[in-house]
Amino acid sequence: MTVLAVVFFAIGSAISGAASSMPMLVAGRAIMGVGGGGILVMIEIIICDLCPQRDRPKYLGIVMSIFGLAMCVGPLIGGGLAEHASWRWIFYLNLPVAAVSLVPLLLFLRVKYKRDAIGKMLARVDWGGNTLFAAAVTSILVALTWGGTEHAWSAWQTLVPLFLGIAGLGLFLWLESTTLIEQPTMPLRLFANRTSSGAFGLTFVASILTYWMAYWLPIYFQAVKEDSPTQSGISTLPVSMIMIPFSILAGGGVTVLGKFRPFQFAGISLMTIAMGLFSLLDIESSKGHWVGFQVVAAAGGGLLLTCTLPAVQAPLPEADVAIATATWGFLRSFGGIWGIAIPTAIFNSHVNTLLDQGRVSEEAVVNALRNGGAYALASVGFIQSIPPDIKQQVKTVYVESLRLVWQVAIGFGILGFLITIIIKEVKLREDLETDFGLVEGANNSSSSEVAAESGRGVVESKAEKSVTGTA
């Protein structure tokens, strides 16, 4: 499955790069999404199959630090390609990366798994639940996109898709709780204890805040500081430089201490503080300010990258590790959707409000900024094309709209802190209980040797053994 996911990602990248129409680009992106989602989840599942619970965080810390690095360096690379080459290279760049990664996967990845016919595997996919969920989320995103821009928030064009989407999510949860689906995408038993459900919630909120920061800091740098796309990427480098060591620190700390709650509280607190600090950014903010603010945010984000999955898995039996890890990865990606959609809706709506108040005196510029135009035109090219007296007015609109965006993010940070309170510290298991792991003799190693390397694990083939206790 891991190899197949990489292949899908490469195929989707090739189609997207060569796209000659929007439908072709959408199809390529969809295939990329299937592959990318599979890569993220399968890597984490493999680590869980190889390492006992207590040792997983230190390895996940390395993996998640790379994830954080990619998300923060991506704008730098993408901005450089968009500015100096072609947007197609954003996709073509994935092809050599996929090719290089396939070599060690094919040569060295030797893990146990239960072989089954492709038809039987496809029959177990929750097609109904996945379709319903995708339709519900799409409907809500349409409402968030239209609200305050194309249509008023009180208009039926906004309310109908919003209510249909919410109803669809409710129907999805009901469907997942029934026996109609043999293997539901998101079985509700995973949320039956407060620790796992709280950790899922914290993962969702942390992802919202991470994407919130990653997507909206470049808007500030390009529209307010007049950075080029490449310079904007350089300006956000403090995030990736700080997030990596703090992600590894949290992973190693959870392994050594056997506790995840201290890192969760520290992480969400730092991110909440950072959102408040970002709301102070304006036209005159110095480099020391925006670099320092990013350091605080990145430290919090790095800590949260690796301390939520152990909390999800600790109260659950090892038989649920794969589905719990997949659900955790799904909620992380799902949070990213809202981390982009919610602030975009807030920003566009507030820009319209300020324009209605006459904050910009040039009618042509007002028309260009309305209904999402400010977000689309947030670039140094647009800003520098405006006369100096109007430019100051436009920058003020950007600053005030961004301030509201960051202030709303503070609320999500507080929500994450409250969710963290309900999470209980559960002892991380030191024994590896799985029927999977490395194939005996592969790479001169075995599952027991991998566990022994951690200093405390022993392999037991008891996949159905459950962990008792209240969480």
Q: What is the count of helical runs?
A: 20
Coarse shape: globular
What are the segments in which pLDDT stays under 50 over at least 5 consecutive residues? 440-470
pLDDT average, as an integer? 83
Largest sheet: 2 strands, parallel
Query: In which range does the helix fraction lie?
Result: over 70%
- How many beta-strand elements? 2
As a whole number of angstroms, the C-alpha radius of gyration is 23 Å
N-end to C-end Cα span:
32 Å
Subunit organisation of the chains: single chain
The CATH homologous superfamily of the domain at 193-428 is termed MFS general substrate transporter like domains
CATH architecture of the domain at 193-428: Up-down Bundle
The gist of it:
The protein is mostly helical. It contains 20 helices and two strands.
Characteristic key phrases:
two-stranded parallel ribbon; disordered C terminus; 471 residues; Growth Hormone, Chain: A; single chain; mainly alpha
What's the layout of helices and strands?
Blueprint: H1 2-17, H2 22-50, H3 56-84, H4 88-92, H5 94-108, H6 118-123, H7 127-146, H8 156-177, H9 194-224, H10 229-235, H11 237-257, H12 261-278, H13 287-307, H14 309-313, H15 321-356, H16 363-369, H17 373-376, H18 380-384, H19 388-422, E1 432-433, H20 447-453, E2 459-460
Parallel strand pairs: 1-2
Main location: membrane
Membrane topology: Multi-pass membrane protein
GO molecular function, one term: transmembrane transporter activity
